[in-house]
Amino acid sequence: MKKRLLQDKFIGSLVGTFVGDALGMAVEGYTIEEIEKKYGQLDYMLEARLGAGTYTDDTEMMIGVAESLISASGFDGADMAEKFVTNCNLDRGYGAGTIEALNNIKAGSSWQEAGENIFDGGSFGNGSAMRIAPVGVFYHTDYEELRIKAKKSSQITHAHPLGKTGAAIQALTVGYAVNQKPEADFSVTDYLDVLTEYIDFESVEYSQALSSIQDFLKNVPEPKVVRNKLGNDARAFNSVPTSIYSCLINTDNFKKAVTYAINLGGDTDTLGAMTGAIAGAYHGYNDIPSDWLDQLENRERGLDYVIELGKKLFCLKHK
Ligand SMILES: [Mg+2]
Questions:
Q1: Domains of the chain with CATH codes
Q2: Residue-wise over 99-129: b if at least 16 C-beta within 10 A, else e?
Q3: 186, 187, 280, 307: which has the fewest Cβ within 10 Å?
Q4: Is 252 annotated as a binding residue?
């Protein structure tokens, strides 16, 4: 693959997280029915909590993951934990479990221990999958290492096995998407083979989701059926498979995949962020609609900064 395209994919996955997060934020917690009634098909930036085009904890933590991979030249748990603590702006809307883990780190817990006892056995929310794009793109040449690093990065805040598996599945999907030529059809069969080769599907939550995805690919149902069966809430085993499915049935362009995901309702900023991470890794930055990009916040740690992180991550990996 040409280096220019590969760099575009690195940037696309990071900015894809950002744009999906910003689009979804405005309707977080809405149902499919409420979004439909109020906006029809929502495919534009709405005024939201922190202003139109702003990002939430999803993107802020994704920035921390990228910064840490760059400064440590790869995964370093202590460094990443420190980046999360330094960057955390609670106005961006952090989950209770993540706040607790970050407080534990501030109080001296190691990155391995900080998330261990949250919610009795660790969190299995989607908070480690939503930020995983930089791990997925950086380790795209080695799926085994990718899976290990994704799980370790999850451990910092989401230590439950279901949380770690969600992060690994999302990261592997991003890495796989980086390796596919955007003009060729994304081979769903090949993707599912790779996924089942590298991920342990013994947990019933993910194996059921995987079999629902396979059924839906054969017989595409109404979005409400997808919502009911796969789920759209903040648990990793609900929203990670839903984001993946949103990409698999909308492989033609970035806009279609992200629009589909945010219109499912529920945890829409994270569904948007995770779908955007995969679709951005597949299509590249150039396929992200410019009217969406134009509206993203671009102060000191906004769009230009995220593009720069994507370039640096690419240079570290491939130059
Ligand atoms: Mg969020």
A1: 3-317 (1.10.4080.10)
A2: ebbbebbeeebebeebbeebbeebbbbbbbb
A3: 187
A4: no
